[in-house]
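Kindly review these tokens for lecture notes.

. . .
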Amino acid sequence: MRHQNSVLHGVLKHVPWDVFDRLVIEHEADFKVRWLATKDQLVALLYGQLSGAMSLREIVTGLESHQARLYHVGARQVQRSTLSDANRLRPAALFADLFAAMVKRTHRGLRKAIGESVYLIDSTHLPLNGLSADWAHYSGTVCGAKLHVIYDPDADQPIYAAISPARANDVSLAKAMPIEPGATYVFDLGYYDYAWWASMDAAGCRIVTRFKSNTPLEVMAELPVPKDSAILSDRIGYLPARQARSRRNPFQDPVREVRVTADNGTILRILCNDLDATAQEIADLYKRRWAIELFFRWVKQTLKIRHFLGTSENAVRIQIAVALITFLLLRLAQATQDIVASPLAFARLVRANLMHRRRIDRLLTIEPTPILNPNQMALKWN
């Protein structure tokens, strides 16, 4: 009978192990390590994400119950204390670099022409307990971290991610993000910074965001709007020439203000530096921002980034990076089959069959009953 590996093996084969091995050497992650190799740590954490394990002990117990199948994924049994120490001490940058390398590989075939690329920028809050107060204290007894993401809604995947304490300003992290010249970036009021806008405008990027309610616009031209639509007005003008303390506004180019009625009746003032696009196109671009909210909701509901296995900054960073790697692995594994179209349904099927010996493209297929040959002796084991 032909051997069939587990579903976990089918998912993990999409990890670029050659890149991983190179990163382990670069970060000296296995230097003088005796008990837990970096690969064993990664496989254990990926198993925890895919299985929905809520604690280190649950990961260790689950792996222990499947020791016979760990060999085929190139991993070994782990101990709880050793895994805890690895999460606390092993460099989190290694896992972040692995995620970045996987993004480049998976996104390469999906990337469109630069002028047509649309990216969404946003962050989400991740609550932490008081044991993380030494690095993630926010206010009072509240502790938390932020996950900052650039998301490609057409490829349905993040292309950049960074982690910070919750008190960090979104714009400060955004200024360190890689910007692709000529692309379109859509973001909300958390990234209201004229200097950052000016730098993106100078790079040829199209920006779509919202005006603050108290931001005036020096109107230079009124453009016609389609009748019987949600577009209320379309105007070209200039932002205030001066900022607080009489500082000169670095963004001196004209901008568009498109006022549109949202589905809930709210009137939005949308800002864009594209003077040639139609008002409806600008409104539709801002509406696409909802896709990154759906991504954050999917990750929080399906993967483990709301309950953390460690309290140190390093452990939290490793867990978030591994969660994002798991997201990419599920996307790659799902692309190998065409039976399950829903990413959420596919993730649930993988979880239910994680250690079963089944092919990824046959998760919904009923296994046939083996045909017994009456002329062959049947051996029965107690």
About this structure: The CA atoms of residues 125 and 263 lie 26 Å apart. The chain is about 35% helix and 20% strand. The two ends are 21 Å apart (CA to CA).
